[in-house]
């Protein structure tokens, strides 16, 4: 199991992988930079206008001497005040527009990251990660990126642009104040870095506990019948409460550090501004500085520190999103078991495995070792063998969920690795041992792989899968919702729904389909098992098919030309039909 608290790299204010992975982030960064530049200009303009209007208004004769009359001075004063109000409104409008654009970009970026994560996982499920962890990561985890995109990243751009621009303007007006600002401003990011290093471990632990909570809760919900049977439900409820308390304590600890660090930054910025105010006040008192320049410096000095303080506050609010994004990149960087994306068409013909060996990461033995096997086109092959012989791995290879560690697979002499996995799977009819039915109608579940299939095709597939009696017993027939995981149906009925899916896929496939079945009669009563075997006999007739099973009764249901393969770990013994 991968520990999220240990698998992430140190946090960065802007991870370059975000720019490479989600194009919306690049667009958002450009928009944030443009808005930041405009806001910086408005801040400088507002400071200049305010200092000018206050200095001229308190100077008495200053305006009159400039324009020559009291009426003209009043008109200029009113014009400058109107300009200050207009700039203030423009700042507010620009800030609102920037946040709205940031929220839209955040939604797009989260969608792109989720799509990348789902495509990566479906390309080869990581065997060292819990389903609950991946679900938490793709939902609650990525949702935490809202604060990062909408508030932290725009503030980070301002923190880069505003202090530099303010320092340049102050240096042009009063170099002494500029030196004070230049010395004190770098102290804030220095303290932020120190606080960030201290809080990273806390944030990673908080995220690890959230993953643990999500994964454990999913396990508990799925295993409720077993827990109730063994009278462990109360003990598991206590364990969930314990994990929840641990997550709450970790969250409160992180918030405590956030509040303390924000207090430190506020104190530091306040002292720095006070230092500037003191030296400006004394020089103004002794006539070494004019009022307009002093006001400009005093108005701009807090603006130099404000973006940095805001970055510190926003950083803590966005750390969970940053940690989640880094965890997504950890999953995306894990290439173990991920199928390379070919671009060729799905080949057809005899399927041959040439010296195929598969060893899963972290295992000390091969799941399959040096396997040579031919699956003739248009014929069924029955695969048997003890548990651990590699039967499920063989199906994973044919589904392209698993790639050979060594050796290769060819289809009519074409390397299967060169084919596009999605196009290959569209020609595969797959019936797993425990089919997953969704909380949808019966027709919707049968149409899972063929959403555009007409009603007549769905009805024919159901008839071929011997589902007519099931349809007749449902309140609304094909329009009946089956409930979560097909709760309305028995195990045998769920298996026949999966067979109906396979019939629908096989009959609508553009190329001759490959039919794969994994223990289709496991755990079924004799009547349901017989019905499934009859349906499978119709499904595999004239098609390339692989049936993995321990049930010897299959030999009587398959066509006469069906082959038999027995896998033994690590050797293979194969022969003709017995």
UniProtKB/TrEMBL annotation:
| Secreted among keywords | no
InterPro entries documented for this protein:
AAA+_ATPase, ABC1_TM_dom, ABC1_TM_sf, ABC_transporter-like_ATP-bd, ABC_transporter-like_CS, ABC_transptr_CydD, P-loop_NTPase, Type_1_exporter
Alphabetical GO CC annotations of the entry are:
plasma membrane
Q: Which CDD domains match?
A: ABC_6TM_AarD_CydD (cd18584), ABCC_MRP_Like (cd03228)
Any Gene Ontology biological process: cysteine transport
Subcellular location, record wording: Cell membrane
Keywords (alphabetical) are: ATP-binding, Membrane, Nucleotide-binding, Transmembrane, Transmembrane helix
Its record classes its membrane topology as: Multi-pass membrane protein
Question: A single Gene Ontology molecular function, please?
Answer: ATP hydrolysis activity
Which protein is depicted? ATP-binding cassette, subfamily C, CydD
Recorded source organism is Pseudonocardia halophobica
Residue limits of the ABC transmembrane type-1 domain? 30-320
- State if Transmembrane helix is listed as a keyword: yes
The transmembrane residues are 29-50, 70-90, 152-172, 178-197, 257-278
Q: Where does the ABC transporter domain lie?
A: 351-578
Predominant cellular place of this UniProt entry's protein? membrane
User: What taxonomic classification does the UniProt entry list for its organism?
Assistant: Bacteria, Bacillati, Actinomycetota, Actinomycetes, Pseudonocardiales
């Amino acid at each position: 199991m991968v520990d999220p608290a240990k698998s992430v790299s140190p946090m960065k204010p802007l991870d370059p992988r975000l720019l490479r992975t989600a194009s919306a982030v690049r667009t958002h960064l450009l928009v944030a930079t443009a808005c930041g530049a405009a806001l910086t200009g408005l801040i400088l303009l507002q400071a200049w206008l305010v200092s000018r209007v206050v200095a001229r208004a308190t100077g008495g004769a200053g305006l009159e001497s400039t324009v020559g009359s009291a009426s003209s001075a009043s008109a200029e004063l009113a014009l400058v005040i109107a300009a200050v109000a207009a700039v203030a409104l423009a700042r507010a409008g620009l800030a609102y527009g920037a946040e709205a654009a940031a929220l839209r970009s955040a939604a797009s970026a989260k969608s792109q990251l989720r799509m990348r994560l789902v495509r990566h996982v479906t390309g080869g499920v990581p065997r060292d990660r819990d389903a609950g962890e991946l679900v938490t990561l793709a939902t609650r985890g990525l949702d935490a990126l809202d604060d990062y995109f909408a508030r932290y990243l725009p503030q980070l751009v301002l923190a880069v642009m505003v202090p530099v621009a303010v320092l340049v303007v102050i240096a042009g007006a009063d170099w002494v104040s500029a030196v004070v600002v230049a010395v004190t401003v770098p102290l804030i990011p220095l303290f932020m870095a120190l606080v960030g290093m201290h809080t990273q471990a806390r944030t990673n632990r908080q995220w690890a506990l959230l993953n643990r909570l999500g994964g454990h809760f999913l396990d508990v919900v799925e295993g409720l019948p077993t827990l109730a049977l063994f009278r462990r439900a109360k003990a598991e409820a206590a364990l969930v409460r314990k994990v929840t308390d641990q997550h709450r304590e970790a969250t409160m600890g992180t918030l405590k550090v956030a509040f303390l660090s924000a207090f430190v930054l506020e104190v530091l910025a306040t002292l720095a501004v006070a230092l500037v105010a003191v030296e400006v006040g004394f020089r103004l008192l002794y006539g070494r500085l004019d009022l307009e320049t002093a006001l400009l410096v005093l108005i701009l000095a807090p603006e130099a520190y404000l973006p940095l303080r805001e970055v510190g506050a926003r950083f803590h609010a966005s750390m969970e999103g940053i940690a989640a994004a880094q965890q997504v990149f950890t999953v995306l960087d894990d290439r173990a078991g991920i199928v390379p994306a070919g671009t060729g068409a799905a080949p057809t013909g005899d399927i041959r495995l040439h010296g195929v060996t598969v060893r899963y990461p972290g295992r000390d033995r091969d799941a399959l070792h040096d396997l040579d096997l031919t699956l003739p086109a248009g014929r069924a092959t029955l695969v048997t063998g003890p548990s651990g012989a590699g039967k499920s791995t063989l199906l994973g290879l044919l589904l392209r969920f698993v790639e050979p560690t060594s050796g290769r697979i060819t289809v009519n002499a074409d390397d299967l690795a060169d084919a596009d996995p999605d196009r290959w799977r569209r020609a595969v009819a797959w019936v797993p041992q425990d089919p997953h039915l969704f909380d949808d109608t019966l027709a919707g579940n049968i149409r899972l792989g063929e959403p555009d299939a007409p009603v007549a095709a769905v009805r024919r597939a159901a008839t071929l899968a011997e589902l007519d009696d099931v349809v007749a017993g449902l309140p609304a027939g094909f329009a009946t919702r089956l409930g979560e995981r097909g709760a309305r149906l028995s195990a045998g009925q769920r298996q026949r729904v999966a067979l109906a899916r396979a019939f629908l896929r096989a009959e609508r496939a553009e190329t001759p389909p490959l039919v794969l079945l994994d223990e289709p009669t496991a755990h079924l009563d004799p009547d349901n098992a017989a019905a499934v075997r009859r349906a499978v006999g119709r499904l595999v007739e004239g098609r390339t098919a692989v049936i993995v099973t321990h049930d010897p009764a299959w030999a009587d249901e398959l066509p006469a030309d069906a082959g038999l393969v027995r896998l033994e770990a690590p050797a293979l013994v194969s022969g003709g039909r017995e």
